[in-house]
Design brief:
- The protein has helices at 14-22, 26-69.
- It has 70 residues and is mainly α.
- Helix 1 crosses helix 2.
- The relative contact order is 0.15.
C-alpha cells in the first residue's frame, strides 16, 4: 500500500496495518498498539490481577507484534 500521508493520518484496517508491519513500517505497529493497548490492559488486569497486569500486557504486545509480522 503506497501513500504520501503518514499511516496515522489515513483510514486503514487492522489487516492493512499488519501488512505494513510485515513490510517493516514501525508507525503502522505503533498505530496497532494504540488501537489494542486498552483491550490488552483490561484483559491483563482481569486475568493477572494488579501485580501481574503490566507483565501480561507486555506479553500481549509481543504477541501482537509476532502476529502482525507473520
Amino acid at each position: 500500500m503506497t501513500s504520501l500521508l503518514p499511516v496515522s493520518e489515513i483510514q486503514v484496517s487492522d489487516e492493512q496495518l499488519a501488512a505494513l508491519v510485515r513490510d517493516g513500517n514501525d508507525e503502522a505497529f505503533a498505530l496497532l498498539v494504540s488501537r489494542f493497548s486498552g483491550v490488552l490492559h483490561r484483559l491483563a488486569a482481569k486475568f493477572g490481577g494488579a501485580s501481574d497486569a503490566d507483565d501480561l500486557a507486555q506479553e500481549g504486545l509481543v504477541g501482537l507484534l509476532s502476529a502482525a509480522r507473520t
